[in-house]
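Entry 14. Structure prediction run on the chain below.
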Amino acid sequence: MLKKSGGGKVEFDIASLIATDPALSFKSAKTKWPSIKILVVNQTLSSSTQIKFVTNTTKGLDPGYDAGMLKANPDFAVYSKILVDNPVDFGL
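Output returned:
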């Protein structure tokens, strides 16, 4: 669910997405779990959240996997929520 304070619309331009090359041999190019990173940027600010699809985790808080977000600017922030009722905004 995408939610913008005060309403509005969020659109993703598929052509601007970056694809990783599985043929690369860099260690950092290999990941244990599928994930997506959402980054929002304007002229002066940026905010991001990362969502990883980890096996054997729960719909609630999983210490060591879920990390709350420290917001530098609460009026310009993108974050995720866990599925079980929890007031914390998550960056991971």
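The CA atoms of residues 8 and 45 lie 19 Å apart.
Filed with the rest of this week's runs.
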